[in-house]
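During the reporting period, our protein records have gained a structure token line. A sample record is set out beneath this paragraph:
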Amino acid sequence: GSFYQDGVIQKRGFDKAVQDADKLPNRLKVDFQYMKREETPEELLKRMRECYQGSGATFFIMTMSSKTGDLHEHFKRWHDECHRRGGREPVLIATVASAPDIADASGGILRWYIRSEEESALLAEYLRWKEAVTHVGVFYITRNAGQADDRYGNRGMQEFHDRFISGLGGSSIDDYSTTAGTAKSKVATFLAKNQSNTKQGTNTVGVFIVGYGDMVREVLAELILQGFAGPIACASTLTEPDWQPQGTNADKRIFTVLPRMSDPRTKLQKDDRNVVFFFSKQTLFRVLELTSKDSDSRTFVDRWTKSGTNTQLAQECLENGDILVQLDVAGCDQWR
């Protein structure tokens, strides 16, 4: 079968990590397992247990907020069970997963990726302060039309809403759970409501898009096609070229976030500017690098946290196993 949305980019990043780690001594074998969209947490944990018992797998890297979030309690129980009986303690490292409440160091769960808390808050601040926006239309991804069933979309929207309204004094937000197929009608609804509710000169309107894949591309395309002329803030998934708008002069109104570099004179280059590729590659490489020196999973979480994981980025390792990646707003000169 084919990959779902950004699975292709994730796999490209993972393959590059394996290539880059080729000369590490005692490098662990990497076995790729493909998740199905409809797979339950129980089914995923069963496969993990089979890898653990059958091939000795101890370290598991997993992507996507919905999958890692749903698995959280199941994995934690398994980790604690292994700990109690003195066995190998499985470790789960999440990446390409932004939603809150994923990491749990005590349960063997780590996460390294741009977090919704920082991403949504920074873009809310930029729209409110820099662009003087008072009203925002938020288009957030859902897996099934008419529902709100994507953890990343839901939590990204909630974080933005809380910051923009409660923290920054924004006037109002209209939110639309959106798929690629419903982008045209949702944008039309937003623009119609905006025209009727906005008095000239008293309200500045912006847009925030939190999603991935063709949903991002279609919402952007419809906003431009249907004549929206305000600023558009987009989640960091905009850094994937296939999801960027084509043949438009709207680039200067569209912005996203990129990781802040520890050395401000440097910037991420070429493929590394695609955050899905970059964090997939860096996360797997870091796991391979740390385990090549010591593959004891009981000390891995502590070593991961203390190592800082990457000196390229300005970031902070948190006690709960999360990493707070500092972000900067990026215009089209950086994301395009």
About this structure: The mean pLDDT is 91. The longest strand covers residues 135-141.
